Amino acid sequence: MDKNQQKQVWKKLPRKMYSEAQEFLEDREDQCVSACARFLHMKGSRDHVWALRNGTGSIKALLLHSRRSLYPILNGNHDIALPKFLNNFLLKVPIHAVQGLKPDAEILEAAMESKGYHPAERIDYDLMALEDPPVSSCFRSGPVNLALRPPMPGDIEELFQLQAAYEQEEVLPKGAVFYPAASRANLERLLRNEQMLLACLDGRIVGKINTSAASFTRYQIGGVYVRPDYRGRGIAVRMAAVFLKGLINEGRGVTLFVKKQNAAARAVYRHTGFTVQGDYRICYY
């Protein structure tokens, strides 16, 4: 460790200083929507914000803890001092995941490995952003009789089939057990707190898309799923285009992260106007 690192000390921020953390996050919002959304919903002693300051006293990096996850926002600093408090914290609080820009996640991952904590799985994603409505051709994609609508109370059982399939295909870490009750609770939370659009064809719900987080000026989307037997017909493109147009018209930008190996999903997002902003990583423990 060099002399500069020796002078760097991570300190937990009291709530009266959260405005400093918010200013730091707002300047980097497009790179850390998930972290910003968690910051906006910090709850008492269960959640934590640590800051690392530079020589002038300004925040140089942040580390957030919320809902068993750690979010490093290190601002591209590769000479970050490892947080010395981390070992004691990990002994008291179980961590399920680390997520953030890949370079930041790698630094925290290395710090945790030095303390004996090794990830069960690492998943790399493209971080993508959209600022303008999708091009007009997207709205002509898919079957002519495709119907798009918001969810209704009577949809819950059919929607649960899609949510369960989506989580098992795209969300659960390798080797993780699927719990139907937890998936249903997650769906109910989405229906209460997020925006969602359904794609219907042949008298059934064949696809869905929803917001998964909202930060200061951006939405994050997720839960994008089309039944396997309806894929390849342009349904996802039109469903996403209609949904995204509504979000953009609210005056917000839109962000997502998509698995690098999911070529079909990446093609859909590129078609609707998303551009890659960087590499994103989630490490599961």
Short description:
This protein is 33% helix and 29% strand. It contains 9 helices and 12 strands. The protein has helices at residues 3-6, 18-26, 33-40, 86-92, 102-114, 156-171, 180-193, 235-248, 263-271, and strands at 10-12, 48-53, 59-66, 69-73, 97-101, 121-130, 147-149, 196-201, 204-214, 218-226, 253-259, 275-284.
Specify Rg, calculated over alpha carbons.
20 Å
Highest CATH level, the class of the largest domain:
Alpha Beta
Summed over residues and divided by their number, the pLDDT gives a mean of 94
Main beta sheet strand tally, sense and closure: 12 strands, mixed
Provide the CATH superfamily of the largest domain: Gcn5-related N-acetyltransferase (GNAT)
GO molecular function: acyltransferase activity, transferring groups other than amino-acyl groups
Pfam families: Acetyltransf_1
Organism: Leadbettera azotonutricia (strain ATCC BAA-888 / DSM 13862 / ZAS-9)
InterPro entries: Acyl_CoA_acyltransferase, Bact_Acetyltransf, GNAT_dom
